[in-house]
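Quality-control log, excerpt.
Job 1 of 2 completed; input and output follow.
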Amino acid sequence: MQFQQLQYFVAVAETRHFTRAADLVHVAQPSLSQQIKALERELGADLFLRARGNITLTDAGEALLPLARRILADADTARHEVQELVQLRQGRVRLGATPSVCTGLLPDVLRAFHDRYPGIQLLIEEGGSHDLVRELARGALDLALVVLPLPTPSPALTTVELLREDLVVVSSPEASRPGGGRRTVRIADLEGERLVMFRHGYDLRELTVAACRAEGFEPDFAVEGGEMDAVLGFVRAGLGVAVVPRMVAARAGRGLRVTPLARPGLHRTIALAHRSDVAPPRAARELQRMLLER
């Protein structure tokens, strides 16, 4: 049973005329009649009683008509839903990002994307780069914003560098200024400072600790184990200083003193990653474009 045959059958049932039905579905009348006969042979029953000038449905035709209409209606609904998705009126994007990227980079981009495509559902998962890479690999995410270099490089992932971001030192305005009041702070100036440190597995933790060790000292933690919001809150409370991305510091608002790091400073590279073997869905590709063009 072919979809086209059901279309022809419903057209004849509704017009009760083979020629008018052929005009309705834009096909030659002999072709329509042949397809109806082929459908009857497949079903093993006549669908129409054909008398001169009078076409009526048989019992088999009466039984088939509501089913055929439902099949055609479902197909029309499916076509419209796919077209809606293609035109970005519906759908979803599953995006993973590190917490600091969620705080600094994503709000403006996601707002612009939502304004343009309000019917697209945005599902955001926060996590470290290692966790996000794992979620990408198992198909739980469409895209992920990760910090390069990846802890475990994978040929199964495609990464595109998005931005290179400076890191800065944040402290409480009431506390003494790190580095003795200079406009910039060297990594060496953090020796003896009490640091508010992120949890294990956090990209910023690994970067900061490695930079301190490269200067020949072990960082001294006042408190450790927090996520981005907790770390900023602890710094505001005067528990210590922290090294955070410049965009995060700019969004953090009042209650923080921001001091740049002296050259060469510290930087991190944010990349957009997706699976190499599967193209992201249309909506995810559009978000990818907006991130790359931001």
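Job 2 of 2 completed; input and output follow.
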Amino acid sequence: MPPPDPVAPDLLERLVSLCKQRGFFFGSSEIYGGINALYDYGPLGARMRRNVRNLWWRAMVELRDDVEPIETSIIMNPQVWVASGHVATFTDPLVDCTGSCRKRWRADHLGDLRRERGKPEDAPGCPECGGRLTEARQFNLMFRTHLGPVADDAAQVYLRPETAQGMFVDFATVVQATRRRLPFGIAQQGKSFRNEISPSNSIFRTREFEQMEMEFFCKPGTDLDWHSYWCTERMRWWIEDCGVRAGRLRLRAHDEDELSHYSVATSDVEYLFPWGWGELEGIADRTDFDLRSHMEASGRDLSYFETETNERYVPYVVEPAAGLDRGFLTMLMDAYHEEEVRGEKRVVLRLHPDVSPWQVAVLPLSKKPQLTEVARSLEQRLRNRFRTEYDETQSIGRRYRRQDEIGTPLAITVDFDTLDDNAVTIRERDGMTQVRVPIDTLEQACEDQLVASRAAALDRARTAADQAGQSAQPQRQG
């Protein structure tokens, strides 16, 4: 049975059901009826998100000598958002339904919303009930709150809608503290908040989300070359480090009428979801817009002096900005497969082993003490090198299926023969192949299997090479 079509209309529904059942993610505050577009991440989801964060951090900070890390506050001086333009322009067009459903919608998403509901894109009225819609009005997406004990205008602040501005306002401090020379980047991960009018598609568009962003500061005139470099590098990360299939990714360059007011070039890494192409990451050439805006508003000098040429200038910035929640959903969706095994349906998440919540599961064949003692001892031993889980509940077949559903690459079975031959069986997730190995060499055997699993994930991600080759170049919509 072939893997599900990525545009199958019920793929998201099936995945969301699995994720709630197995503890990847679910609605927040569900015992009180939930709260719209806010989610909690369960034990498996928290583990997997941590793995994705670590992969990004490894690629963007630890393996590079030209990027510095930073962590800035969620609440900043409100003048930051005035200078950046968010207070005046960070808006979406809002329309209200005057019909039976009384819902609010983003005016620029109406065509997509109608299409999702099986209606013509240009159908009149509300996407839900067909009722009359009001004229569009602009709605600011920033969450307002108050600092201190009195809720008056003087104390009004905002939850940050992006992490980028913290890196811009701290640019001069980072240069002074690290003595960095251009080009170099500043990277951070953290929560952002946007009061979305019409959040949709589970965790794809939410009001609280996590960003993984880097601002790469460079000399004016070199920015377009760096933009091209980061487009290539970020596509490589999604495919090679995360195992997302290249045939379902594309790099789409924005047309001139799409570009933000601060950008001269922007390309989006997009994935083919059931509802169409959706953005995972944007790579934007922001020019010197942000640094100049903060210089003018604050009166502080954020220029850079290049000692080699005795030049002073305001750096240009290239920004690769990825969404953790969207990346998390994409990796789950891309890994989801259903197949028939001996007349039964098997659901398997073919996750890259560096992404999967667990790498190795240790499963005693039965709950008899002579087996569980050996199995627990092995699991504790393997924890020093791998992300491991111990499971002794239900039949071994059911436990294999559970590990398949949560994406665990390897399952180690301790059986009664182990007591005689001092060996265990390693079962591989995707091919369900099994090999018997001595306990004394178990760590190396697992490492070898995971190396093979990484190679298989890379090969799978690079399938449809002709599509992958095309998607590695910026594509314009036609």
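Post-run check on job 2. Residues 136 and 469 are 41 Å apart (CA to CA).
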